[in-house]
Design brief:
It is found in: Membrane. This protein has 460 residues and is mainly alpha-helical. It is built from 22 helices and no strands.
């Protein structure tokens, strides 16, 4: 078995450009996360599409926790993730048959279409359709981009490269907050401008994807060995790639024997990466991060900040932890400042842990023969949980009030225990050696790995 040390590589300008271009899909995802909260807090948007919610917002004595409890308003945010859930399985097939690069290109087209349709919406159905187009783009992008980054990164830099996706998600959320802050004063078209600007990074991803190389693993898996070796030399910046090429080729030969990868995922040996891939996505959302990211401006207004101040605060921390808020009236400003500091810490901790690692670990723990299909389950699980959180949060806030954050805290405790006992370390392990060097060595998951022999050779 080849070791990571013998895989020669250089970090070239070209490969860095490829990583940054691909990571723009993360920026689009983050922008979509951040933009919806600001838009739903804009009076012009509410008056046009959700007049009843706007009326409740204007009532000074209205229950603070229930001002924005409206299923259709929540559907504006959550419909994107339901569409992404469905699209992720089609994206998995596209990744496997056509490659990672074309899948990223398709994602950019849906992003551009979603931006245009949302910005021009005159009716609720047009608004929701625009979000669905965004969602399909998210499904394709979130399927292909983490896999692309993992497969093109040198083993010793794989973690850092894959974290670019989450970094750009965070940048996208920041940009969305800044955009919403300035467009909130553009009456009555501010919300249209906010939604339309999503087309700009979509165009960057579209034109940038033209320079991307296809990943060596994808090319070799599809029988293009010579092109795969050439691509490997190009992204490694050296001609000395024989050892890594042979390892990728061996993994691809195994993958070719698997005719039905989704059925292969039901095999006992696929349980460890599948369980971890799905559970990491569920747990990532049960931190409560996206509930806060989606509805930060709404929550700030609930606390008593003015509209502009609520959007500016969302730029700073992307969130608010709702404590010490009475049913009516506003929160004491001193307490509000303390809450802002606490949430800064909360968001920072998420960005260092569950944010990037929730995407990194599933992208590198599936063997090549089930990598795209397995990651599709991970992406779809993330989108399902994101949809549920987005659709239910404002209603949960209305009924559970501040206790909703204790609900998320209990989940975080469970998540910690799961990581301690069931998540293996993959640092420094070549992506195509995960089975031998990770799963078969883990004290719990090794029980699911078949012994070497004829039984283990059986392929679907």
């Amino acid at each position: 078995m080849a070791n990571a040390e013998v895989f020669k590589s250089k970090i070239t300008v070209y490969v860095v450009a490829c990583w940054i271009v691909a990571a723009f899909g993360g920026l689009l995802f983050g922008y979509d996360i951040g933009i919806s909260g600001g838009v739903t807090a804009m009076d012009d948007f509410l008056m046009k599409f959700f007049p009843k919610v706007h009326e409740r917002k204007l009532h000074a004595k209205e229950d603070n926790y229930c001002k924005y409890d409206d299923q259709l308003l929540q559907l504006f945010t959550s419909s994107l993730y339901l569409a992404a859930l469905v699209a992720s399985f089609g994206a998995s097939k596209a990744c496997r048959i056509f490659g990672r690069k074309p899948t990223i290109l398709v994602a950019s087209l849906f992003f551009i279409g979603g931006a245009g349709f949302s910005a021009l919406a005159e009716h609720k159905w047009m608004l929701i359709l625009g979000r669905i187009l965004f969602g399909i783009g998210v499904g394709f992008g979130n399927e292909a981009i983490p896999v692309f980054l993992s497969e093109t990164a040198p083993v010793q830099h794989r973690g850092a490269v894959n974290i670019l996706f989450q970094l750009f998600v965070t940048i996208g959320i920041l940009i969305a907050g800044i955009v919403n802050y300035f467009t909130s004063t553009l009456h009555p078209i501010g919300w249209r401008v906010s939604l339309a600007i999503a087309g700009i990074p979509g165009l960057v991803l579209f034109f940038g994807s033209m320079i991307l190389t296809e990943t060596p693993a994808s090319l070799i898996e599809r029988g293009k060995d010579t092109k795969g070796k050439t691509a490997l030399k190009k992204i490694r910046g050296t001609d000395n790639v024989e050892d890594e090429y042979e390892e990728v080729k061996r993994a691809c030969e195994i993958a070719k024997e698997v005719k039905q990868p989704f059925k292969k995922l039901m095999k006992r040996s696929s349980v460890p990466p599948l369980v971890i891939g799905i559970m990491l996505q569920i747990f990532q959302q049960m931190t409560g991060i996206n509930a806060i990211m989606f509805y930060a401006p709404v929550l700030f207004q609930t606390m008593g900040f003015k509209n502009d101040a609520s959007l500016l605060s969302a730029v700073s921390i992307g969130a608010i932890l709702l404590t010490h808020l009475n049913t009516t009236g506003t929160m004491d400003k001193g307490l509000a400042a303390v809450v802002v500091v606490l949430v800064c810490l909360y968001v920072m901790c998420f960005a260092w842990s569950w944010g990037p690692l929730g995407w990194l670990i599933p992208s590198e723990t599936f063997p090549l023969e089930t990598r795209t299909s397995g990651f599709a389950f991970a992406v779809s699980s993330n989108m399902l949980m994101t949809f549920l959180v987005a659709q239910a949060f404002l209603s949960m806030l209305c009924h559970m009030r501040a206790f909703i954050f204790f609900f998320f805290s209990a989940w975080i405790l469970v998540m910690g225990l799961f990581v301690v006992f069931l998540v293996p370390e993959t640092k420094g392990v070549p992506i195509d050696s995960i089975v031998e060097r990770v799963w078969k060595q883990h004290p719990v998951w090794k029980k699911f790995m078949d012994d070497d022999g004829p039984k283990n050779k059986e392929m679907v």
